Amino acid sequence: MIYALLDKEVLLQKGFSLKQFFQQIQLLDVLLVQYRNKVGSLDEKRDDLLEIKKYYQGKVIVNDTLELIEYADGLHLGQDDLRAYNDDLTTAIRIVREKISYKLLGLSTHNQTEILEANTLNIDYIGLGAYRSTQTKVDAKVLGEEAITLAKLSKHPVGLIGGVKLSDTFTEDIAYRVIGSDLYEN
CATH no. for residue 172? Predict the structure, then answer.
C-alpha cells in the first residue's frame, strides 16, 4: 500500500499546488497521506490541512505538529520530537495519546534499538529508513536491504521510507511504501 508523503517544501520546489498534487496521485492506491511542513506557521499548516481534506477523502497524518491534531486523522513523530515530551518513551507516548486519543500514531525508526523500543509503545505503525538516499534528507543513514531485515523485528506495521519508488515491491514485512518525490515524476 502507498503512504504518500506530502512535503510542503518539495511541493513548492516541484511547482505543484495541493490540488495538483492530489490530481497527480488520484489513480494510485494511496491509503494514507502524511503532511510535512517544517518551516510553515501553524496558520499555514492548518489552512493546508483543511485544503487537503477538500481533495483527499482518506486518512491524513500530520508530521510533528500535535497542535493541529484536530485537523488530521493521526500524528507522526520523529525520535527527537517524541523525546521532547518526556525522556521516558512510555510516558511520552502516554502524554501524546492523551491529546490524540484513538487517532493514528506513527514513530520514525532507524535501527534495531529504536524498533525494539517502539515494540513496547502504544503506537500504530513505524516509519523505517532511509531505504535509499534522498534529496530531502541528505543526512539520513541509508539502510538499503538491511531495512527489509530490520522490518521483521517490528510488531507494528512498517512503512519503509527514504527513496522508495512507486515501482518498488517488498515482502509482507513492509505494510506501506512511503513515497515522496517519486509521486511527482509519474
Answer: 3.20.20.70
Task: From residue 148, give the alpha-carbon distance in Å to each of 6, 67, 87, 177.
Answer: 24, 33, 28, 12
pLDDT in tens, 69-124: 999 999 999 999 999 999 999 999 999 999 999 999 999 999 999 999 999 999 99
Distances in Å between the Cα of 24 and the Cα atoms of 19, 27, 30 are: 9, 8, 11
Tally of domains within the chain = 1
70: its cell numbers = 484536530
91-100, 127-136, 150-159: least confidently modelled range: 127-136
Asked if 5 and 161 touch (Cβ cutoff 8 Å), the reply is yes
Q: How many residues does the chain have?
A: 186
Give dist(CA 152, CA 137) in Å, integer: 24
Task: Name 157's bridge partners.
Answer: none
Residue that wins the pLDDT comparison between 131 and 186 = 131
DSSP H or E segment with residue 19? helix 18-25
Q: Which domain holds residue 138?
A: 2-184
- The secondary structure element, H or E, covering residue 107 is strand 104-109
